[in-house]
Structure formats: structure tokens, C-alpha cells
């Protein structure tokens, strides 16, 4: 996900996307703790996506 994809979305869409990504991050962390996560780089990618979404929300205000 690139910032250019996110910046054109409305504030409500961004908030929904942020909720989805935070739930995904929670699930990935749970899988990591139970040794079910095979690709640990997913955590980093989701965290970066969350940061991009939060930046777009701040810019939209």
C-alpha cells in the first residue's frame, strides 16, 4: 500500500481502513506469540501501513 493510494480517500474510509489494519496487527501478534506466524515481515508491513494511514488522516484534518 502506497501513500498515493491512501491520500485520495475520505476521512471515514481512512478510519475504517485503520480499524481493519489494527485488527490485522493484533491477529498477527497473537499468531507470533503462538508460533503460528511463518512470515514475520508481515508485522513490519502492517505497522508501516498503519503509520501511512495515520499520516493521511492528519493531513486530511
Written overview of the protein:
- With 61 residues, this protein is an all-alpha fold.
- The protein is 77% helix and 0% strand.
- The chain is elongated, with a radius of gyration of 13 Å.
- The chain starts with a helix and ends with a helix.
- The model has no long low-confidence stretch (mean pLDDT 93).
- InterPro entries: Ribosomal_uL29, Ribosomal_uL29_CS, Ribosomal_uL29_sf.
- Pfam families: Ribosomal_L29.
- This is Large ribosomal subunit protein uL29.
For the termini, the CA-CA separation is 21 Å
One letter per element, helices H and strands E, the order comes to HHH
Count of separate DSSP helical elements: 3
Unreliably modeled segments:
none
DSSP strand content: under 5%
Residues in helix, %:
over 70%
How many runs of DSSP E, i.e. beta strands?
0
Major β-sheet profile: none
Q: In angstroms, what is the radius of gyration?
A: 13 Å
The backbone outline, from C-alpha atoms, is elongated
Mean pLDDT, to the nearest integer, reads 93
Structural class: mainly alpha
Q: What is the gist of this entry?
A:
It comes from Malaciobacter marinus. The protein is mainly α.
Q: What descriptive keywords fit this protein?
A:
ribosomal protein, 61 residues, structural constituent of ribosome, mainly alpha, ribonucleoprotein
Amino acid at each position: 500500500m502506497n501513500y498515493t493510494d491512501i491520500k485520495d480517500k475520505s476521512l471515514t474510509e481512512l478510519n475504517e481502513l485503520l480499524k481493519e489494519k489494527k485488527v490485522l496487527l493484533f491477529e498477527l501478534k497473537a499468531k507470533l506469540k503462538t508460533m503460528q506466524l511463518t512470515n514475520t515481515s508481515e508485522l513490519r508491513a502492517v505497522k508501516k501501513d498503519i503509520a501511512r494511514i495515520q499520516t493521511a488522516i492528519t493531513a486530511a484534518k
